UniProtKB/TrEMBL annotation:
<dbReference type="Pfam" id="PF00135">
    <property type="entry name" value="COesterase"/>
</dbReference>
<dbReference type="InterPro" id="IPR029058">
    <property type="entry name" value="AB_hydrolase_fold"/>
</dbReference>
<feature type="domain" description="Carboxylesterase type B">
    <location>
        <begin position="26"/>
        <end position="498"/>
    </location>
</feature>
<dbReference type="InterPro" id="IPR050309">
    <property type="entry name" value="Type-B_Carboxylest/Lipase"/>
</dbReference>
<dbReference type="GO" id="GO:0016787">
    <property type="term" value="F:hydrolase activity"/>
</dbReference>
<keyword id="KW-0732">Signal</keyword>
<feature type="signal peptide">
    <location>
        <begin position="1"/>
        <end position="22"/>
    </location>
</feature>
<protein>
    <recommendedName>
        <fullName>Carboxylic ester hydrolase</fullName>
        <ecNumber>3.1.1.-</ecNumber>
    </recommendedName>
</protein>
<keyword id="KW-0378">Hydrolase</keyword>
<comment type="similarity">
    <text>Belongs to the type-B carboxylesterase/lipase family.</text>
</comment>
<dbReference type="InterPro" id="IPR019826">
    <property type="entry name" value="Carboxylesterase_B_AS"/>
</dbReference>
<dbReference type="InterPro" id="IPR002018">
    <property type="entry name" value="CarbesteraseB"/>
</dbReference>
Length: 546
């Protein structure tokens, strides 16, 4: 027994020391909202699961976010908060990654900061996922590599699907401003307001915030650029694979689209809820599981307040935030999104006939860019250019016209697994290169080889993005200067290595701009979704259009 007691005593003396040392090393930050204790991992301070808004549950379901109450004591920030409610991913989905447990109580954010950060640039990331899925906790968005470049990275959660984008006449009636919907967008604004108030305590500069996102996150960036309530909350914007498409109005039929309130009433009926009390009583799991089967697709609604008008109209009027922008798209966007494509025509003659029926006087231009000799590749390219290419170039050209820095890119990089799966430069494939998370992609993601060439490309992209967040001009030591878009449609081409270029896909942007202009003028629904062989007959020339 004495020997056992001596051993136990020895262990008791040995074990607490490293544990106590680890506890002492955990970073403590006293922010205006309250004190938080995070962790240090490889010289980066990480704070996870910090609430920026109260739980949107019960009577707060489908209401604007309410700022989280300040707290006393020290909050543990070592673990991610819950992911927002969302449907289970489809089998075989290459984008499905690991998520925390889901809950309606999900409005939290995460911070990665250099150990000695002081007045550092801030990079706020909005995840993609069609406004239906995703989380700021996904490993592919780990901010450590960017933080080691001297910037403070913030990732956020926001309400998704019906929880975040649901308008209904009864909701509008009870709201002081008589509008409803756009709760997910309001969450993003609330997160930016939290950053403005608190990020200085983490070593960030609240006056030097870049808001960034990919896909639906980039769509959100555009809405934030035009939202009056978001003005002044960020100084720069990054939009990766954004898509500027028509949105429903709250109550009126615009571009042939069913009003958002009418869509909401129909959805409530399908769920068997006849009033707000019944809607708010629905279990969150029921909503997450059943709504995707109804055909409902979440989207912001034009309410005249948070979303003043169609995005493209706001940009046409120059109403967007006058900030520098970095925007681009991937050469293989649609390769992983083939569900967006219609059934291909039987042969080249049928393809050409369909294009001529839809594009009229622009048909020759369309067929020159998207020829019938390879229908599959032409359909992939046309849909990519109409949705993602046109949007990215629209963004950089509009910001350049406003006298702001505008930087355009094409991500065109592949590797053996993407070539094997015919997924060269697929949608979102640039993300692990920007974040330096090649080893942390979802399980079914085409595996990125751990080679010097892949690491160098990732290092270059991380440097460009971090320098843009810092200064508004993307630069990477040892790599080409990134030309401003105003320099003959300058862009940076990310293939095996970055290289500068000019005049990407000559004539393509002008073609799609002309077609979209006419369709908008005619009030056509989904004016840049219906592309190629499913394009409706082009309307006559309208004032201000080619």
């Amino acid at each position: 027994m004495p020997r056992l007691r001596i051993c136990a005593l020895a262990l008791s003396l040995l074990l607490p020391a490293p544990i106590a040392a680890a506890a002492d090393a955990d970073p403590l930050v006293a922010a205006p909202a309250g004190s938080v204790r995070g962790v240090v991992e490889r010289d980066v301070r990480i704070f996870r699961g910090i609430p920026y808004a109260q739980a949107p549950v019960g009577e707060r379901r489908w209401r604007p976010p309410v700022a989280a109450a300040d707290w006393d004591g020290v909050r543990d920030a070592s673990q991610f908060g819950a992911a927002c409610m969302q449907p289970k991913p489809r089998a075989g989905n290459i984008y499905a990654g690991s998520l925390p447990a889901m809950s309606e109580d999900c409005l939290s954010l995460n911070v990665w900061a250099p150990e000695n950060a002081k007045n550092a640039p801030v990079f706020v990331w909005i995840h993609g996922g069609s406004l239906m899925a995703g989380s700021g906790a996904e490993p592919i968005y780990d901010g450590s590599a960017l933080a080691r470049r001297g910037i403070v990275v913030v990732t956020i959660n926001y309400r998704l699907g019906m929880f975040g984008y649901f308008a209904h006449p009864a909701l509008s009636a009870e709201a002081p401003d008589h509008v409803s919907g756009n709760y997910g967008l309001l969450d993003q604004i609330a997160a930016l307001q939290w950053v403005k108030r608190n990020i200085g305590a983490f070593g960030g500069n609240a006056a030097n915030v870049t808001v960034a996102g990919e896909s639906a996150g980039a769509l959100s960036v555009m809405y934030l650029m035009t939202a009056p309530a978001a003005r002044g909350l960020f100084a720069k914007a990054v939009a990766q694979s954004a898509y500027m498409v028509s949105a429903p109005a709250l109550r009126d039929r615009v571009n042939g689209m069913v009003p958002a309130e009418e869509q909401g009433s129909d959805l409530a009926a399908k769920l068997g809820a006849t009033d707000l009390a019944a809607l708010r009583a629905l279990p969150a799991e029921t909503i997450a599981d059943k709504v995707p089967t109804t055909g409902y697709f979440p989207f912001p609604a034009i309410d005249g307040k948070t979303v003043p008008r169609q995005l493209v109209d706001s940009f046409d009027r120059g109403e967007q935030a006058p900030v520098p922008i970095l925007a681009g798209f991937n050469s293989g966007e649609i390769r992983s999104l083939r569900f967006l494509l219609p059934k291909p025509p039987a042969d080249a003659a049928a393809y050409q006939a369909a294009v001529r029926a839809g594009y009229g006087e622009f048909a020759d231009m369309f067929l020159a860019r998207y020829p019938a000799k390879n229908i599959d590749e032409s359909m992939l390219a046309a849909t990519r250019d109409a949705m993602y290419g046109w949007t990215a170039e629209r963004l950089v050209s509009d910001q350049a016209a406003a006298g702001k820095g505008a930087y355009f890119y094409l991500f065109d990089h592949g590797y053996p697994a993407t070539q094997e799966w015919n997924l060269h430069a697929f949608h979102a494939s640039e993300l692990p290169y920007v974040f330096g998370t090649a080893s942390r992609t979802p399980p079914l993601w085409p595996k990125i080889p751990d080679t010097l060439a892949e690491r160098k490309l990732s290092e270059a992209m991380g440097d460009y993005w971090a320098s843009f967040a810092a200064t508004g001009k993307p630069q990477a030591k040892g790599w080409p200067d990134w030309p401003d878009y105003t320099d003959d449609r300058g862009f940076l081409h990310f293939a095996d290595t970055p290289r500068a270029g000019h005049n990407l896909f000559p004539g393509t942007a002008a073609l799609h701009e002309a077609v979209v202009c006419r369709r908008r003028a005619a009030g056509d629904i989904a004016w840049n979704w219906n592309v190629g062989i499913i394009a409706p007959p082009l309307s006559p020339k309208a004032e201000g259009c080619q």
